[in-house]
Design goal:
Lyase, Ornithine Decarboxylase, Chain A, domain 1; globular; 20 strands; single chain; binds pyridoxal-5'-phosphate; about 35% helix
Length: about 425
């Protein structure tokens, strides 16, 4: 039995696309990107918002241009990302720079390029004050430390006492730990007095407040609390123009995954936003920086089954890709659904799908797939975000090509690397 939806995008047979461009191949579906963008837009239609696509999730200039076409701005975390955004046609005020622990010189470069800048540590805030005083409005990134407050049992800033551990039950230990480890991001509220002291001393104009806790927006109560907290803090900044709620919206990888309904948090936000704007007496903007939400489900890594082998217990499918091209399974233990798009017999078998690097290199273990034969094409899902952008040349293998399927055409948006690309920057000594 054939299931066209498995291997067709916009009427194109992905196996033909692989024939044309080779494997491994990253393929993005412009229709899905657009659909996700519109879903995001609709969920937050109750608030005056901007969507700043987090380009680190899928750093390709054609994807940037498509996001611009849809009406997004971009969120950048390095100066080259800003420059790429400018080249893609974004105006400086359509780009936000949200780096983590960077040397102050990078912030100066961003200011020179005229983009809104986000400061996330006391040291750079002080340097910023010295350099620019009240001449360049700036946004500060806060870290509400909710979890550490709860765990340490310490008196909390504002009213975190009503948050308790039950709120994290459905988040799962690993994710909690992940969030906990993220605490290098942002200015901890513990240091908030210092922020105010520096802001007042240099008369820095704070025009934005930023809160991004990756992987954490899984729970409505936590989201509501985060929003209330940031609005409460925001009241102290007379030059405030926007509150940036970052990204971090999870998407389903596995049918059992719990994800938050965007419409639900849209409603929560609208309520808090209206209360806040009324008390402020004017409207502010809400910025978002989704990466994963827009791109994850829009992208696939297509790979060829090249070697089938067994060790007596496990059937292995050896592919022509690996964690050099898709790092998430090995790095985060992420689940990525894998399907065989070349065989639809329905007689499935259990496999470990492995990469070809000379390391432990699992793409998926104990997966049921329609019987895999040599040269079958496997589709690895949820590869649109943090797929290509985290790829490397480990084992001296070229990075895959990228293709965008748009208007029922497969457009090449990045060439496959070749041997010359791999050696280009090496300096050869003679002995
Ligand atoms: C990585 C990042 C994002 C995007 O996060 P997603 O989980 O992909 O939505 C947004 N904002 C900042 C500051 C980031 O570092």
């Amino acid at each position: 039995m054939k299931n066209n939806s498995l291997y067709e995008i916009q009427g194109l047979d992905l196996r033909d696309v692989c024939e044309q461009f080779g494997t491994p191949l990253y393929v993005y579906d412009a229709d899905v990107i657009k659909q996700k963008f519109n879903q995001f837009r609709n969920a937050f239609k109750g608030v005056d918002h901007r969507i700043m696509f987090a380009v680190k999730s899928c750093t390709n200039i054609s994807i940037m241009k498509y996001m611009r076409f849809l009406g997004a701005g971009i969120d950048t975390v390095s100066v080259p990302e800003i420059k790429m955004g400018l080249r893609a046609g974004f105006k400086p005020n359509e780009i936000v720079f949200t780096p983590n622990v960077v040397e102050f010189s990078e912030i100066k470069e961003a200011v020179a390029l005229g983009v809104p800048v986000n400061i996330e540590n006391i040291q750079n805030l002080e340097a910023f004050g010295q350099e620019f005083n009240d001449q360049y409005p700036v946004c500060i990134r806060l870290n509400p430390n909710m979890l550490s407050e709860i765990e340490s049992g310490r008196a909390s800033f504002l009213d975190f006492t009503s948050i308790n551990k039950e709120h994290y039950q459905d988040v799962g230990e690993e994710r909690v730990a992940a969030w906990h480890n993220q605490s290098k991001f942002g200015i901890s509220l513990i240091e908030f007095d210092k922020v105010m002291e520096i802001v007042n001393r240099y008369k820095i104009k704070i025009n934005g407040l930023h809160l991004h806790s990756s992987h954490v927006i899984l729970n409505k109560e936590v989201f509501a609390k985060g929003v209330q907290t940031i609005f409460e803090i925001a009241k102290q900044f007379e030059h405030l123009e926007y509150v940036d709620l970052g990204g971090g919206i999870m998407v389903k990888h596995h049918p059992d995954d719990k994800v938050i309904e965007l419409d639900d948090i849209g409603r929560i936000l609208q309520k808090e936003y209206e209360i806040f704007c009324t008390s402020l007496g004017r409207k502010i903007k809400i910025w978002f920086e989704p990466g994963r939400f827009l791109m994850s489900e829009a992208g696939y890594l297509l790979t060829k089954a090249v070697v089938l082998k067994t060790n007596g217990f496990i059937n292995f499918v050896g592919t022509n890709t690996g964690f050099n091209h898709l790092l998430r399974p090995m790095m985060y233990d992420a689940y990525h659904d894998i399907v065989n798009i070349s065989n639809f017999t329905g007689d499935s078998e259990k496999y470990n799908i492995v990469g070809n690097l000379c390391e432990i290199d699992n793409l998926g273990t104990e997966r049921s797939l329609d019987k895999v034969r040599q040269d079958d094409i496997l589709m690895i899902k949820n590869a649109g975000a943090y797929g290509f952008s985290m790829s490397s040349n480990y084992n001296t293998r070229p990075k895959p090509a990228e293709v965008l399927i748009i208007n029922s055409k497969a457009e090449l948006i990045r060439k496959r690397e070749n041997f010359e690309d791999l050696i280009r920057n090496q300096v050869e000594l003679e002995f």
